[in-house]
Amino acid sequence: MENIKTKKIKTEDFFEGFASDIKNNPKKIKEFEKAVNEIYNETGDIDVILGALKVLSCLKGNVSKLARDSNIERASVYNLFKKGSNPTFKNVAAVSYNLGVNLNLSFAHK
User: Fold this and answer.
1) What is the DSSP letter of 101?
2) Per-residue tens of pLDDT for the chain, all 110 residues
3) Which of 7, 34, 75, 94 is the most buried (most CB within 10 A)?
4) What distance in Å separates the CA atoms of residue 104 and residue 92, rounded to the nearest whole number?
5) Mind listing the domains of the chain with CATH numbers?
């Protein structure tokens, strides 16, 4: 994590490194949350957010249940996690909520 700002990181590689470590580890979950926010705030790349949601959904385990709980089609959940997808904000918000992720708005000061 020491070179996050200076090293170009592929989203998939970055999240794969965290996936196995964060389950049931509050310290690692906090590190993951911080890293996701830093990278997204630096790049503005929606795939960073979608990648993080994908990792969290895999840890939760059941995409069908996530889709039902989010009141969206299962295929829409899978499409949400595809790199380069363009999901609706409604679907991102519903999945985020059901994964226990709060979406917050803050204004960039440039």
Assistant:
1) -
2) 444 444 455 555 555 556 677 877 888 888 888 988 999 888 988 888 998 898 888 777 788 899 999 999 999 998 998 877 899 999 999 999 999 999 888 787 76
3) 94
4) 13
5) 11-98 (1.10.260)
